[in-house]
Amino acid sequence: MTNSQLKIVSLIPSATEIVAALGLTDSLLGRSHECDYPPEIQERAVCTQARLDSNQSSADIDNSVNDLLKSALSIYDIKIDVLEQLQPTHILTQDQCDVCAVSLADVEKAVAELTHSQPKIISLQPDKLSDVWADIERVADALGTQSLRLVEDLQARVTICEQKTQALMEATQPTVACIEWTDPLMLAGNWIPEMVTIVGGQPLAGVAGQPAPKMEWESLLAADPAAIVFMPCGFDLNRTRQEAMLLAQRPEWQNLHAVKTGRVYITDGNSYFNRPGPRLADSVEILAEILHPEVFQYGYEGTAWERISPETQSRLV
Fold it and tell me: Considering the entire predicted model, what is its pTM?
């Protein structure tokens, strides 16, 4: 099948970014409501919608998600009428997390209802960085294109960060708390602990390849990490700043070592850390820049991440 014959619909942002990185943006006809990168895909037909309001508080979002899942309802709806009009040859989805995007089961059900096409479903399920690179290769194979140069470039960027930080390795690696959700408190899992280790940090919690673990507030205080990096799932830099400030209002917050030393950071987790696609290489570079600013200056500060100093916290609340 040639590129001109491909009709791709991506129902997850990371897959959309993979398609674009493979040079197949022109073949992408439809996207999810959350797909926003690269910018040129904004005009593509929107094929999904959410059943919950992302403007709610973190606690309310968590409760809404749990209520939907307990009721055996999907968090997202697929617009079957749009898929019918697009007549895709391939649909990209995922079966890694029912909260992050439409599920594989929902996509299979939707495809079964189509009458004008029977697209091939490509489902991604990455848990570690190696899985992400393998997914890129698998997508490329399914779409009839090459991925070797792209994957080699992404791996090389990660390797550069790893080699440079090994040369800086301290006797004791700084503990890093990567916060994926604030209420309830959850620390990032899957590929994030691996990334922290790559740039010379020690993940406070979480095991590479395993889902995000919950943590009690008292446990975070007791662990007293050297650095805290906020990367809430689905939130941009501005929303993440709001979430960080809610935790900063707790009286015990000022006692944390990371707060006293000015090593509290917010990131655009929605664009980077939460998307298992090509920009995870960017995410490794962001972590390297955060933990080792004297060595790494990629230019992400101000757009992808910011430092929240003790002096500015009171002003931002």
Answer: 0.92
